[in-house]
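Hey there, shall we discuss this one?
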Amino acid sequence: MKHKLLLACFLLIGSGVMAQSAYQWKKATSGGYTYKYVTNDPTKSRFYTLKNGLTVILSQNTKEPTIEFRMAVRAGSNTDPRSATGLAHYLEHLLFKGTDKFGTMDFAKEKPLLDKIDTLYEQYNKTTDPAKRKEIYAEIDKTSGQASNFSIANEYDKMMKAIGGQSTNAHTWYEETVYNEDFPANATDKFLALQAERFRYPIFRIFHTELEAVYEEKNRGLDNDGWKLNEKMFELLFPTHNYGQQTTIGTIEHLKNPSLVEIRNYYNKYYVPNNMAVILAGDFNADEMIKKVDQSFAFMKAKPVDLYKPVPEKPLTSIQKVDVYGPSAESVELNYRGYAQNTRQSMMLDLISSILANGKAGLLDINLNKQQKVLRSGASYQQMKDYGVFSLTAQPKQEQSLEQAQQLLLDQLALLKSGDWDESLIKATVANSKLGLLQAFDNNGYRVESATNEFILNRGINWDKSLSGPDQMAKISKQQVVDFAKQFFADNYVVGLKHKGEDKNTLKVEKPAITPVNTNAGETSDFTKSLLAATVKPIAPKFLDYKKDLNFGKVGIADVIAVQNKDNSIFRMSYRFDLGAWNYKLEPYAAQYLTFLATDKYTAEQISKEFYNIACSYSFNVGNEVATISISGLQENFDKAVNLVEHIFANCKANETALAELKSRILKSRENNKLNKGAILNGLMSYAQYGPSNPSNYTLSNDEVKAITSDQLLYILHNINNYKHTITYYGPQTLTDFTTGIAKLHKLPAEFTPVAPAKEFTYTNNASNQVYFADYDMVQSEIRWVRNGGAYDPTLASKVTLFNSYFGGGMGSVVFQTIRESKALAYSTFAVYSSPDKKEKDYAMIAYVGSQADKMNDAVAGMNELLNELPRADKSFDASKDNALNAIETSRITKDDIIGSYFADQKLGIDHDSRIDEYNGLKTLTFDDIQAFHKANVAGKPYNYCIVASEKKVKLEDMQKFGTVQKLTLEQIFGY
């Protein structure tokens, strides 16, 4: 449940000046409740404050019968006690364990054991003698096992699954802890009853195995070079503030000495209604919803809250350096300390980040990325409540030092300060941001994330200023930016240099001896029985009828598929080619080359600026089997954008200097890829599934890359439209108007050029277990099981869906409960029977465990036990089935997703909405059907074990127990 970075859009930063009259706070009363709202708010959000101080933010959006939920708490690692860092994060994990009413079979019998565990942890924390500590922990382990005879693990997740939730999660960060869910609109009463009970009186049960999961999370962080770099840079950037002095996950010493008493005190202190917000967006009537929320959370009592009050940081007056070593690719980062939220300075820094890097026409985009002076570079502004952090990043290219890359970043700041840039960048930034918001606010998830961030930063009182942010930003002049930049960007930053090399300071959280606890997966509390027994009005599924929901037409010899956008003026169009890298190895390189090419009319830099100025985008993406030219923006600029794309492909010309730099960058990227453990693990899987000739290593060799010519790549670009393609369109025009217009813009041949046959790969069919191993310097071990499951069969769709939901999908699944909850063997684990995306491809059974290297043997044994024997838990099965049905009943495929769904079904040889068959099939399935599926397709089969770990931390003889071991070289894995 690690924190994911929230929205970086300047919308959430706002401005410190008065809002325009278009965005003004107003009050209204409806349904017996008074609320505040901002005029012209595209989300139409209502801000309520209940009698007990609880903030409620409601945004009604009835386009699909689902609701997004956030419970936001204005407390995180900043408010951790200095002597118990990581405490807020611990608490977040424990809010999934239940109360005295659910998560337990008999709380009266469980409570004395839980009290004893609390006491034992207090003794453990105060004891320094290692032998005595070991003795106390053994008693904790024993008592935890006894307590687990009465607990029901993951009952919360099972309830959420049963009522139709699809995204149970949470995160902790500096000044926030946020719990997120989504649920069907017809389950509102059940959902609110569950959430109210969840926060009424949480019980911290099954703690020592959850503690082990947090240890694993810490160890994963210790294997993450970027995480280490960020932590060290923040220490210098914030020498007194908790942003730099306390990490969210906590120190190793504090992790090893947790206090359940302190965690309870933290909950009682900060989880109070006047410090929390319920945020909902989706299909509901706001007047009805606020009554239900009020009734559900009226039990909460307000208390005075003493939040973190930092002493202001002194100005930074020198350049400070951080060096971090690790196995991943080299990089350099420059961090400047920014300003508090909702200040004009922060708005200025957000604007400057887009002037420097916006993906198209920023100074870094044009001067560094477009000219290939570095491998890649970027700029961003991250806003917290008290301060922000302005970052510049770069990865060096071949034969370039980190210091040289750093200087190139500083050179761009010098250009910014000198005013050597086009003032139109400000106007274009605002226009592009407005377009992005127009699309984003259509999404309920974005709405609740925006409101959540607003509540955390300022309790939502500055929503008017946030909405007016784009207009205020448009008023900023170039001279104001230059003057500010001169003052702000000085020798006052922290530079982080990420070197490739051994980290000699690597630590890890050692595993304690843990006896697996009972999960009691088949048991159900009275609270859960009552909650799930309540009837709800069913939601009827809405399936697609491709003949009615799509408009089919022709432009010359090209097929056209269109969906009309009746909501706004946004368009998205593509030319979709049924060819890719498996047809032409050079095609992906041609797509990369195109970025740096000029035409007879425009330089490469001018092309980027043209698109940015009209707030349109285009891309040429090449997959293995499909290539797509995509164009999007506002319909008023449709002709300009399409004409420009057509001109580029027809008239792009060779740039030998750019090609030479591109080859060098490709080779450097390949070096970096070999340092990426995720890429290595994916390569091992591909090797296991297909053998030595596989999709991962089907690529040009390094020598072949060096031999690429401009003529080869230009031939592909100039002739791409001569290959068969389908034109797709989502936009405000009717099919007739669109086809008439595109026929004038898009030049087509008299007949299409035949496509070269695609490379075919042969699936392996091993008769015994195989182990594919790659050595990587890391604390953890990453193990992935994979076996090919045979040819695609559309009649299996419902069984595959239900099996995945029950067996390995989510926190309530068999795999998660056993591997993490019961045995504490991993922070991250899953298992899935993976369906192919094309009828000619095979299924694959895939399982995963990421654990400490010294727990690898136990983790493998635990997963193998589940692969061979499917545990039966009827209530969990029923919840999984309800969840699978609910997911289809509440899903609404709209807009150009209809086109995507059509192509996906076509690839599988299905001429209708495949969900129809899946839904009907799910209705009749029983546990016996899933057990038979498991026996036929999963159990007792030979598997390929793909393992990435350090040779220093795992033993060859242990891996040989799994199967025949083959250590692969990076060249075997990647093909270069």
Summary: DSSP finds 38 helices and 25 strands in the chain. Residues 107-126 form the longest helix (20 residues). Confidence is low (pLDDT under 50) at residues 1-20.
